[in-house]
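thread: overnight batch results

M.L. [08:02]
morning all. the overnight job finished for the chain we discussed friday. pasting input first so we're all looking at the same thing
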Amino acid sequence: MRINWREVFKFLSGAAFAGSIANGYLCLQNIAVPFLGYTISPRLLGVRAIVQIVVCAVLFYFGYLKPRPQSG
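M.L. [08:03]
and the structure it wrote out:
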């Protein structure tokens, strides 16, 4: 069984995009999120949103835009 990495990258780019939108919204609304007894500040949620947008862009490139290798 082979893993089609292109499809995996497509899925992960969508997941990273959705996560960045959620974190960005919480940051803009100034909502702190409780997590395992700690509180994640809105500022940290904003940093996470930026990091996830970058990850989304990288995964989007490898999933959709990178040319497929030519088989000889």
